[in-house]
Amino acid sequence: MEHQYPTTIKARELPMARSMCWHCQSEVTGEYLCGQCVKVQPLSKDLDYFACFQLPRLLNIDEQQLEQTFYELSRTFHPDFYSTKDESEKAISLGNSAFLNAGYRTLKDPIQRAEYLIRLEAGAVKDIRSNPPADLFEEVLELQEDLEIFRQLVPKGASPELEALREKLQGERERLEKRQAEMEESLKGQFKQWDQVQSRTPLPGDAREEKNSILRAMQEILSNRTYVRNMVNDLLETTG
Amino acid sequence: MSRIVGIDLGTTNSLIAFMDKEGPHVIPGPDGQNKVPSIVGLTDNGMIVGEPAKAHLIRDPSHTIYSVKRFMGKGLADVKDDLKYFPYQLHEKNGVIRIEIGDKTFSPPQVSAMILKELKRRAEEYLKEDISKAVVTVPAYFNDSQRQATKDAGMIAGLEILRIINEPTAASLAYGLQKKTQGLIAIYDLGGGTFDISILKLKDGIFEVLATNGDTHLGGDDFDQLLVDVMVDDIFQTQGLKVGENPDLMQTIRLEAERVKIRLSDETQTRAVIELPNSTYEKVWTRESMETLTMGLVERTLAPCRLALKDAGLTASQIDEVVLVGGNTRMPLVWRKVEELFGKKPHSELNPDEVVALGAAVQADILGGHTTDLLLLDVTPLSLGIETMGGVMSALIRRNTTIPTSAKEMFTTYVDGQTSVDIHILQGERELVKDNRSLARFQLKLPPLPAGVPRVEVNFLIDANGILQVTARDIRTGEAQSVQVKPSHGLTDDEVEGMVRDSFQFATEDIKARQIIEARNEANAIIVATEKALGRAANLIHEKETESIRQILRQLGEVKDGDDHRAIRAKIAEVEKTTHHLAEVLMDATLKEALESKKLSDVIK
Ligand SMILES: Nc1ncnc2c1ncn2[C@@H]1O[C@H](COP(=O)(O)OP(=O)(O)O)[C@@H](O)[C@H]1O
Ligand SMILES: [Mg+2]
Predict the structure, then answer these.
(1) How far is the CA of B357 from the centre of ligand 1 (A)?
(2) For residues B450 and B467, is the Cβ–Cβ distance under 8 A?
(3) Residue B138 parent element (H or E)
(4) What is the pLDDT of residues B408-450, one digit of tens each?
(5) Structural domain for A135, as ranges
(6) Closest listed residue to residue B327, CA positions, set B3, B38, B17
(7) What CATH number labels B220-296?
(8) Is residue A114 part of a domain?
(9) Are B255 and B231 a contacting pair, CB within 8 Å?
(10) What is the B489 CA–ligand 1 centroid distance (Å)?
(11) What's the complex ipTM?
(12) B425 with B468: CB under 8 angstroms?
């Protein structure tokens, strides 16, 4: 039948697991389909998501390009196109697709993207702290206690006490939501800084110290944000 | 490459379709019907499937299985609230429901396999070739056990299920192909037993599912049940009759309730009529009264819709098109509620009964390598995780992750010399293990070493069917380790193998049942046709001839209800012989009439 959609599979290159085709042993230098026998090749175990999607390690990315590359690579690796192939090819298609899907999901979301980047660069940043600062910790502890009291009051039915507590907790929630928004705003600032350093050419002595301090700052905001967000969710769930 | 067909294995109705150069087509049965009721009946002469089994449902409800899809991949505890709706006995063995009818016991995949076989036979007859490969659809919200059970059914039926795809996604394929739609679409699928909502992005031939949600325990059957409850109560109040003690009557009421619901999709008022042992019960239903009664059920579908939208990061108004799938979406109330939620008129240009099967055929064509420009990127509907300390589930793969997808987890020991770790795999969105679905357990073997030294990496992979595959590797030696996963609610490989063998044995029994049905259908058709012919030929043949034809028809009428298909066939042949002259007379008359009233060229054309 007549189809309207174009099937474009551009010859792109990606780091592959081996330099020789697993099937016909001919040299493969980065094509994901062997030039000789056209069998699909496994992606390199060392490939990171940024490289897979051929994006620079920046935190503001071109989402259009991300999607386009995802679709393009899916057309190459998806198991649907290998269902009549042999077991080895099926397994490679499955592995490559799973990697691709995980990569797309990670990079699409700015928070996951940042967390992933920090992990990638973690070798360089040793002293990343993931506990919340004492003041936030105290605050959350207090809220948890109030929540507990609230939960115990609920089964006893409506009471002025319950209503007062509900109001208080809702107020707290709004405050925390504002705080979360502020954190996300300051994350954006860090993203910008990171991208600036990464795009500077030539990188003065690879600017490791500068980069590490941005990563550390981001990590701190990210873990505090997780803390706040979990608390907001708890509040939402319990007090409505 | 042999042909791959697409199958919609529904709770209520099943269909089989194929794709050729013109596009996807549903394969009709010999009776011209596209839908096969998903009903299986046990007769003295073997199993019958589809329309004949539906007739059997009223005659002999305790030997007729319907809605078996509700039991797929489940244990008895999962369906305890439904037991009262089913006239047959259920019990459990190895975590799997077993259905007892007569002196036989079947697992749900075996019953589904009978439906699959019937569909396969239809396709083979129609396409005049052997069919051994298929794409089969399941509700998007089906969990791993339910998908695995569907695969088992295929195996038992002698069909290799190359791919399991989600029903709403299949619908989107058929819809997108036909309408060349691009943008964001929502597929709302309300069938007989399940509800699904899927949000997709269609772009340049890619069908990317952004989020899916649903309720595998909500469908048209539940609407019928509310009507049944009202009428059963009514009958008790007015006549003092306890319908619950009479399964045959219960079935009659259930079927009448469904007919009332269906009529009220077109009419605003209708009458339910039920023959009771000593009287006739009648009740007038208005569309309004039914809508008030069932509003709660329709509203229950809206929460999953909102959740799916939230997971997709969208608001209702961003959806470009809403597509309705499944028979129960013909209810005007469903239309209104869906339109209200999304703020736009839903589409239903494609037949909501057939669009899923058509989409399955398109997917079959993609797998066969013929359609190369379309690609489905589907998601896993439920989060997958493992049990950790304190009965808490730790999620490894989040719901609505594009599949295939995988997650790796490293395991080690807590005690010196410990040689195994028990791993419990779960699916669901809740915090605690007990609130989630137990999928399977396995024991990971570890070398006897000091605590914390062994390191085994387990890879949890959800394939493109949404089915879990588990592999393990010892990090220190680099060696792969085999894992024997024991499903919590699934058949073992041995059991499936045994059922494949049994199915060959049943097949010979079932042939007899089918021969009787076919002969009976033919007899019915001949009786109707001959009666009609006699009416038209009233003045053309001798009275004695009419009388002898009438007599032989009566004999056929008696023989056809028996169990001997050869006797029916023989009688049919006799009827044909006796009516030979009648046919000739009628033909002459028709031709003469035609010649007299029209020019010859018109007649020959
Ligand atoms: N015109 C109609 N109005 C309302 N409900 C209908 C209508 N036609 C069929 N149904 C209902 O649709 C359900 C079957 O839908 P279908 O899509 O075939 O189900 P499934 O996918 O579960 O096999 C049944 O509950 C049936 O009563
Ligand atoms: Mg359906």
Answers:
(1) 15
(2) no
(3) strand B133-138
(4) 999 888 888 888 888 999 999 988 898 999 999 988 888 888 9
(5) 130-239
(6) B38
(7) 3.90.640.10
(8) no
(9) no
(10) 28
(11) 0.84
(12) yes
